[in-house]
Amino acid sequence: MYTVAQLIGGVWGAGGEGGELVVHDPADGSPVSRAPVATADEVAKAVEAARGVAAEWAAAAPADRAAALHRAADAVEAAAEDLAQATTAEMGKPLDDARGGVAAGIGTLRQYAELAPVRGGRTLHGGHDALDFMAPEPRGVVAAITPWNDPVAVSCGLLGAALVTGNVVLHKPSERTPATGWLLARALDSALPAGVLSLLTGGGEVGAALSGQDVDVVAHVGSTATGRAIAAAGARTGAKVLLENGGSDPLVVDADVDPLWAAEQAALGCFANAGQICVAVERIYVHRDVADGFTDALVARAEALTVGPGRDPGTQLGPLVDRRHRDHVHGQVTAAVAAGARVRAGGTLPEGPGAFYPATVIEGCRHDMALVREETFGPVAPVVVVDSFSEGLRCAADSPYGLAATVLTGSMSHAQRAWRELPVGTVKVNAVFGGAPGGAAQPRRGSGHGFGYGPELLDEFSTVKVVHLEAPGRGHW
Ligand code: NAD
């Protein structure tokens, strides 16, 4: 059992007067971690303490901050297996996936450590005796509020980028993965000056208290509803708000593709991490010409997955994060079936402990069903048959979200139309996942705003000071 401690003002074990929360293993319901809950007063004190060391960290040489981040990445690397084990124990994903998430996080820390010190601003020559330059500066105090679905990778991105650009950071990890957040904070803190990183634990009320504080940036990765509450808080406090939120990513399957390969892609997109990925495939628009072969192959893939606890080698489909979330997933499936859709695989609540949910394929879905329009965040593949690629694109574009979308097509002209016409932050052609290392993403509409990844995140956590220099008395230098 992990016993989590908070880090406030450089002191481990501070606060926690708000009570205690216990996380249960989603595979069997056994208790995994206990974590303190911060009070609003502790949150306020943590922000005040962070503000107190902000100027010193901001004044550190960029190369020194980068060296500290490299040492922090070394410490995370040394704790990598513990972090992966904690992730799997707290949120259930297969251990190899958890290891992959930790490795991705370490890679991001190192990438930011390399990129940050070489950043510069523009220089303009207004005249022979005048010069303007733009100097990036840290924004100050950053609140980073993170989710549970890939806790190390997501947190390393936000924390690494904010710290290396000279900000002090208060991290509030998800209440579903507090031990993972604590192990990460311990590793990072071991390489940083005291007080530069703080860790506050607890639920949404702690996140709300933090985002209502006098901070300079609130960076939130999580659900759209939470993102909107944070945006409202930011409108009151004046903090910059960076939101990487939910999605309902479409997959459009064109008439000219191999239905077996398309089903393989769909299965990966829908069932990896039990569908609990922000850019998971949430709805499928398949051309009528290939729909039968595609759906049959997808059903076969869903039924072939090895289901079990994430810690068992060979598990391909772990449990959902908890039963509350499983109820949400099953509720959407049940509503779609009540409205006329048909279950081809899965779709029933299994007996036994834990929060398992089977890989589910539902055919006969319509574009207006909640299962199709809303984020499900579970291992569910709703299939909508369309009569043309244009209809598929039209449906794909019609969404309150704007995170990412995939098209599978052999037609260059359809691929070109897809990236031009889909109003999302990322368009993928012929692969549901992937993308070059360091790739950035800028979601739209209900999915948030601002860059959440990539070198551009360094800019999000920086502000720019414009300096105009002129020779005195209109003379010469
Ligand atoms: P969530 O928004 O419920 O929780 C995320 C964090 O916000 C947690 O730390 C939580 O305690 C905190 N929080 C909750 N209510 C709050 C409030 N009122 N004010 C401030 N903070 C609050 O999301 P989740 O369930 O942990 O994560 C799943 C969601 O995250 C999905 O919608 C998924 O799509 C999204 N997600 C998006 C991305 C992306 O890059 N776009 C990446 C991963 C996950």
From TrEMBL:
The keyword Oxidoreductase appears for this protein: yes
InterPro entries: Ald_DH/histidinol_DH, Ald_DH_C, Ald_DH_CS_CYS, Ald_DH_N, Aldehyde_DH_dom
Presence of the UniProt keyword Cell membrane in the record: no
CDD domains for the chain: ALDH
E.C. number(s) listed in UniProt: 1.2.1.16, 1.2.1.20, 1.2.1.79
Range of residues in the leader sequence: none
Domain of life: Bacteria
Enzyme class: oxidoreductase
Aldehyde dehydrogenase domain span: 19-467
GO MF terms held by the record: glutarate-semialdehyde dehydrogenase (NADP+) activity; succinate-semialdehyde dehydrogenase (NADP+) activity
Keyword field: Oxidoreductase
Name by which UniProt lists this protein: Succinate-semialdehyde dehydrogenase/glutarate-semialdehyde dehydrogenase
Organism of this sequence: Micromonospora echinospora
